[in-house]
Design brief:
Blueprint (H helix, E strand, L loop, with lengths): L2 H6 L3 H37 L4 E7 L7 H10 L11 H7 L2 E3 L3 E6 L3 E6 L2 E3 L2 E3 L5 H25 L8 H20 L27 H8 L2 E8 L1 H22 L8 H7 L3 H12 L1
Antiparallel strand pairs: 1-2, 1-7, 2-3, 3-4, 5-6
Length: about 280
């Protein structure tokens, strides 16, 4: 054995450690695909469905939580079974419900959850509540979150057909960080008008009378307060935020396997000159 090779070449232990480190990196790459898929699915669900924020209305103490008292409250607010409006919209708004980015969720008998549009027929005609800038910003943050998350997951999941190198893999760390940031900012919904007491007030008070203190006092005499809580959508957004952040960390420890490596693919391909010579021999 050449003494110079033993002195300056890599030892057997170094080769074994490098192989073990690469094996751990390849396993981390495999797990990264599953974690990024779970994060992407959670972010999609948090935006697509109509239960991002749970919303509960507190009625005046003179009304109990029974259905008959809610019906009485609706009648006091001007909802009567006339003009085809009925009291169903009112009763679902006074009962616990949920808020989404495009729809809100009502609970119909018996325990049936239905997504409804924000524009509803009321005794005052078709009315839409005021969606403030924080509400729209929360929606856009959620969209940006799953767009960046989808780009990161697509890069990892389709690496076997769209081969990547180690540098491109490491760049997806920034993609997952942006996905985590924007998905987390979608929780701005809790600071929007959706959690205000007067969000659905135009459904009970004519929009032309919203500035009338007497009319608003009638509404306040029925609805005491409104509270928002985490629901399926916001829980999925939190889970997605954490998983995207975990993906960004896992990328730093991942190693592109040979089957997905662009460099390994190019190294295994024959040189262009030999390929042309082989084609010519086949033609002859």
């Amino acid at each position: 054995m050449d003494p110079l090779l033993g002195a300056y070449g890599p030892s057997g232990s170094d080769v074994d450690n490098e192989a073990k480190q690469r094996a751990r990196g390849v396993h981390c790459f495999s797990l990264l695909g599953l974690v990024s898929l779970a994060a992407f699915c959670c972010s999609i669900y948090s935006y697509a469905y109509c239960d991002f924020v749970g919303r509960e209305v507190t009625l005046n103490p003179k009304y109990s939580a029974s259905g008959s008292s809610i019906g009485q409250a609706c009648e006091d607010l001007g909802y009567v079974a006339a003009a085809g409006t009925g009291t169903s919209v009112c009763s679902t708004l006074l009962a616990p419900h949920a808020i989404g980015f495009s729809y809100w969720q009502a609970t119909l008998p018996v325990d049936q959850h239905v997504c409804l549009t924000y524009t509803q027929l009321t005794p005052f005609g078709y009315v839409t509540p005021h969606l403030d800038s924080k509400f729209h910003a929360s929606s856009w943050m959620s969209v940006m979150g799953y767009v960046f998350g989808g780009l990161g997951w697509f890069t990892i999941a389709f690496a076997n057909c769209c081969r990547i190198d180690q540098v491109r893999l490491q760049s997806t760390s920034c993609t997952f960080l942006l996905a985590s940031l924007f998905t987390g900012l979608s929780l701005l919904m809790f600071k929007s008008s959706a959690c205000d007491k007067d969000f659905f007030a135009p459904f009970f008070v004519s929009p032309s009378d919203m500035n009338d203190p007497a009319k608003m006092e009638e509404y306040d005499s029925v609805v005491s307060d409104v509270s928002c809580s985490l629901s399926k959508g916001s829980n999925c957004a939190i889970a997605s935020t954490v998983l995207y952040l975990l993906c960004a960390v896992m990328v730093r420890a991942s190693v592109v396997p040979d089957y997905a490596s662009q460099r390994a693919y190019q190294r295994g391909a024959p040189p262009s000159g030999e390929q042309e010579q082989g084609e010519q021999e086949q033609r002859v």
